[in-house]
Write a structure and sequence with these properties.
It is built from nine helices and seven strands; from the N terminus they run βααβαβαβαβββαααα. The chain has 207 residues and is of the alpha/beta class. The protein has a single domain, classed as Aconitase, domain 4 (Alpha-Beta Barrel), CATH 3.20.19.10. Strands 4-3-2-1-5-6-7 form a seven-stranded mixed β-sheet. α3 links the parallel β2 and β3. The longest helix has 13 residues. The chain is globular. The two termini are 34 Å apart.
């Protein structure tokens, strides 16, 4: 997993509440077995018409937001089904940060395990960022996970909270597998003290 410490990027506003995971990545694109390649289908039903042609007026496709890597959205972002593909689509599209006043718990947890930082700010702060990103060309934010701070260098600044375990995992790029591998020596020592019994070995051979 890619570590996250400090990121500066263009902000794109998705001024919608209750954006669910089926809107983030529709169900027909969940057949892929890889974690990559989902970005082109991000918000597909909002970006494309029924015949597969780009609608053209969706905010992510506006030229001014072409290089955006920070998404600011309304409350309850990522609600709906638990599909991890929603996070894969966002990261594959190029997003490193999503800012909202609240997130669905499962989506926030999936984001943590895939290196996507979810930043919770209050509704007034989210509204201010959204307004700036609409009014100011190439509006950028710097998100610093080490000091838990968001700022634009133009007067806006806010702090956010995150539990220390999640923060440590993101700072060091540790997903569940990598966290487990940190205990590899202890796991090996335990297994050495508990050898597989003969009958278990026999079952393994038969299988």
């Amino acid at each position: 997993m890619q570590s996250f410490r400090k990121h500066t990027g263009v902000v794109v506003p998705l001024d919608k509440v209750n954006v669910d995971t089926d809107q983030i990545i529709p169900k027909q694109f969940l057949k892929r077995i890889e974690r990559t390649g989902f970005g082109e289908f991000l918000f597909y039903d909002w970006r494309f018409s029924g015949d597969g042609k780009k609608v053209g007026d969706f905010v992510l496709d506006a030229p001014r937001y072409a290089k955006a890597s920070i998404l600011v959205a309304g409350k309850n972002f990522g609600c709906g089904s638990s599909r991890e593909h929603a996070v894969w689509a966002l990261t594959d599209f190029g997003f490193r940060v999503v800012i909202a006043s609240s997130f669905a718990d499962i989506f926030a947890n999936n984001s943590l395990k895939n290196g996507l930082l979810t930043v919770r700010l209050n509704e007034e702060q989210v509204a201010e960022i959204t307004r700036h990103s609409k009014e100011i060309e190439n509006y950028q934010l710097t998100v610093d996970l080490e000091i838990l701070r968001v700022e634009d260098g133009q007067g806006f600044a806010a702090t956010f909270a995150m539990d220390e375990f999640s923060r440590h995992s993101l700072l060091n790029g540790l997903d569940d597998i990598e966290l487990t591998l940190q205990q590899e020596a202890e796991i090996a020592a335990y297994e050495a003290k508990h050898p597989v019994r003969a009958e278990m070995k026999a079952i393994a051979v038969i299988v």
